[in-house]
Amino acid sequence: MTETFRMDKAQARLLDETGQGVIGTPMDRPDGPQKVSGRARYAADGTPEGTAHGVLVRATITKGKVAAIHADSISDLPGVIGVVSGPEFIRNPAQGMANAAPVQPGTRVDYHGQPIALVVGESFEAARDGALRLKVDFEAEAGADVDPDTASEVETGDPSAVGDWDSAFDGAAFKVDREFTTAAQVAAAMEPHAAIAEWQGDKLLLRSSLQMLRFNKNEIADSLGIPAENVQILAPFVGGGFGSKLGIGPDAVAAAQAARELGRPVRVVMPRQAVFDSILRRTETTQRVRFAADADGKLRAVGHDDRVSNLWEEGFAEPTSSCSQFLYGADALRFQQSLARNHRTPTGSVRAPGEAVGMLTFEAALDELAEQLDIDPVELRLKNLPDTHPMTGQAFSSRGLAECLRRGAEEFGWSARGKPGARREGDWFIGVGMASAGRPNMLIQASARVRLEAGGATVETDMTDIGTGTYAIFAQIAGEMLGLSADRVTVRLGDTDLPGASGSGGSFGASSSGSAVFLAARKIRAKLAEAMGCDADELTLQDGIARGGNREMAISDLVQSEIVEEAQIEAGKTAESHFSAGYGAHFVEVAVHAWTGEVRVRRMLGIMDIGRVLNEKTARSQAVGGMVWGLGAALTEEISHDPRTGHIVTRDLANYHVASHADVPAQMEVSFLDNRDDEANPMQSRGVGELGISGAGAAVFNAIHNACGVRLYDFPATPDKVIAGLEALGL
Amino acid sequence: MKEFTYARAETLDDAAGQLDETARVIAGGTNLLDLMKLQVMAPEKVVDITRLPDLSEISAEGEGLRIGALVTNSQLAEDHRVRSLYPVLSRAILAGASGQIRNKATTGGNLLQRTRCPYFYDPAMACNKRDPGAGCAAKEGVGRMLAVFGVSDDCLAAHPSDMAVGLRALDAEVEVRSPDSSTRRLKLDELYRLPGDRPDLETTLAVDEIITAVVLPAPEKGAVQAYRKVRDRASYAFALVSVAGNVTLTDGKIARAKLAYGGVAPKPWTNAKVEEMLVGQAPDEALFRKAAEALTADATPHSDNAFKLPMLRRTLIAVLREATGLADASPGTDKTKDAA
């Protein structure tokens, strides 16, 4: 049993002392060539001999039950093997870290699009034909709530508050009190959800596109009613997740159940429309944001309330105010959430749950306050940075927000900003906007094993690489710690037979699982120091050479037999004593067409504080990707739900508009502060994947206002809304 | 996808001879295959005409241009004669779909593509176009992309083509091979039917007629042409509204104005009254505003898409401003070169 390292106190900055010089560098992904040449095997690749193909069938009622599934209606179709359904089927994917089966509704239907059966065929085409033609009888119940605004069941939490909010707000001279709406969104990962299930006796081998294997193993075992030790999941490559693959999905459960019944491997690939229908999406929100301030810009009151939605029995509610609770200080702060239960498609974590939509409105309202106060928006933010967490009183670990704001303003040329409508190029209004970024940083339990042999090192963990760069980063951590170039480190990921990691989610993967790699390597360093006869802190390892105690030896000579160390880390006392978060500042320039209302982003600059940067290239990619998501949230991304059935009408990538290349400016710049977060983890690093989104869309909205004077409160700013705003101003 | 038979036609006669109510012509397949996978369309037979000779050329015809039905969208958009003499057509094509799709999609197929109304695309939803008499789920549903002109109680779907809007502003004609092996020509406007009570019938073609070419008339000297498409993202999205303009100024007055509108009707839309208001007048923003008001006067929007009216008016004004020199030309607005 590996003992657990608890993060109870700040650790020495060992990665600043090691001499290999690979940590933090913009190293290419070692898996890059495999990916771009099509050799990387994703979940649905590498179909085993004798595989049958399954296509999910959806409910076409909103609420009620499945009365009968007429398998005989398709039994004559060529290539159709049969129909599988049953109590194992899950209503929707598990929420992140559920670690148990999601709702298994039996014949009950809770939303239009719910997977209710699997048609299995000899080919994908035959199965799809059968799935589209299968006759199903439903008993529909009328009167299902599908609109969160009018839902009859709303769970309103107690406000979380400090200070005397009412008197702080009422007594202030300057106020903003705005209601915003943000559209529902989907993750739209490039690789659709897919699974291949294969049984050997009572053991299940599952290849699936999943983010958190340690949890997913328990979720599928619980769904199928089998012991978790009988499950092995493989997910060496994942084509994007963004939260939509945190929990086990209906594809995997249906594939496993069908494979068990048929006695042969079954592959289920969800068509894009099915991904829209039943994979967890981001909720639509209504948010009320309130600020009150004195004439000098000192915040007196901060309020952020919301209404989000989900299906019944889902524990997830989008935490829109998560950043609003610690970015700025005030005499009083108040946050309250309402969760409307309804029969729209289920909601869950989509990249940066909370900040992605909460920071849109919070930072847009703050821009309006700055205008009212006639104070520069950067100054207003700098004036209100708190010394300790405004809600909990915790100390902050390193907090570079002020530096991000100042450096961003300088690099962007913020001081040249004019009044709204002042700058025009032909029929285009030009304007600039900014916003802060924030994202709480977490340390999640994780294990990893490192093997050191004469020829190099191997890292083993069930951690996933969802396109984020895990293969590269772990090679860098182990290489740095063991004095090896990264190409001498082999990284094995995505296999539940390896030590259980944090998984990829919440931007905690690289730092949490990477810390387990770091600690396992630190143990190996101790053994090498012992072999060298020196103290561990005297030991230097570089380019395969160990130095210490006035000796120098090749590491390959030092390693008589393989040294294997495993480490486990979990959060400890620093998580209570200190509040750790990533910070940043976004600066954006947009053009708004005076006649057509089109908005084009001309440049974006993000300055980020993520503690120690582990790989400058993959971190930058994460930040840029997040900023593109922010741009999409501000301008293009919107799910439309049918007002009668609650199903998603825009259920393909032609009608759900993620930002296209033409939407993304060529000038997309990111830079990182050279910072350390001593309380976060032993590597002093923080998450980055979700920080880039946080606030980016608000900066776009604020730039629209600076360009043409239009303030919008309904995201995204599609041209129709901009035109309505222009016409309201008489433009 | 339901099983179907596939036939590769060797000649036009051969192709036409294989066509009946249960068969469909396939060329690029960029729309038909999607619809077949979803079982929105389920022909028993597809007749592949891509190997037919002589339909892939762009050639001079009189002072105009004859575009074979199998000319791909990419080929047409990049043709130097089209770019210099009929730039609105290049601009319209390039405003649609993606590079990959334009490489496959053909001229004839583009004209005959089906609406992207999401209720048409979802077999679980009632659709009179897919299943005559079934009802229209879009009417009380999500209606952002629906039409505002030419709709009926049975169907509100918009025609999705950009290319066809450009062709309409050029007064293009469509050449059709009739069952008796003769050819007939019709104005593009005569190709399309409004939905009325039979939205499943979208064109005036007989089941065994095949589009063989599109013919452009002689180019207008000195015209300014523009295609302006407003959509929910900068690329790869269908038009909320689009305006194709083909305008000639003589002695400071508008001598000729051909305007067509996309994203707003079951076919490329035009309004002769608007053009009459403009012709003979000096360009002036107040005049353009009046013309734009006239354009949208008889629109019948869905509750979700009344925004298309001001958007269409403003886009028309923007196009006219650029086409008549009241504003600087932006990408999408081109002065035609004189014919060689």
From TrEMBL, chain A:
Mind telling me which InterPro entries this protein's record contains?
Answer: Ald_Oxase/Xan_DH_a/b (IPR000674), Ald_Oxase/Xan_DH_a/b_sf (IPR036856), Ald_Oxase/xanthine_DH-like (IPR016208), AldOxase/xan_DH_MoCoBD1 (IPR008274), AldOxase/xan_DH_MoCoBD2 (IPR046867), AldOxase/xan_DH_Mopterin-bd_sf (IPR037165)
**In what residue span(s) does the Aldehyde oxidase/xanthine dehydrogenase a/b hammerhead domain sit?**
37-142
Q: Which domain of life is it from?
A: Bacteria
Provide the residue span(s) of the region labelled Disordered: 20-39
Q: Tell me the GO molecular function terms.
A: iron ion binding; oxidoreductase activity
One Pfam family named in its UniProt record: Ald_Xan_dh_C
Q: What is this protein called?
A: Xanthine dehydrogenase molybdenum binding subunit apoprotein
Species in which this protein is naturally found? Allosediminivita pacifica
Automatic annotation (TrEMBL), chain B:
Alphabetically list the UniProt keywords: FAD, Flavoprotein
- What Pfam families does this protein's entry cite? CO_deh_flav_C, FAD_binding_5
Q: Which Gene3D superfamilies match?
A: 3.30.465.10, CO dehydrogenase flavoprotein, C-terminal domain, Uridine Diphospho-n-acetylenolpyruvylglucosamine Reductase, domain 2
Entry-linked InterPro entries: CO_DH_flav_C, CO_DH_flav_C_dom_sf, Diverse_Substr_Oxidored, FAD-bd_PCMH, FAD-bd_PCMH-like_sf, FAD-bd_PCMH_sub1, FAD-bd_PCMH_sub2, Mopterin_DH_FAD-bd
Domain of life, per UniProt, equals Bacteria
> What residue stretches are annotated with the FAD-binding PCMH-type domain?
1-221
SMART domains, sorted: CO_deh_flav_C (SM01092)
A GO MF term:
FAD binding
Protein's UniProt name? Xanthine dehydrogenase YagS FAD-binding subunit
Task: Name the species this protein comes from.
Answer: Allosediminivita pacifica
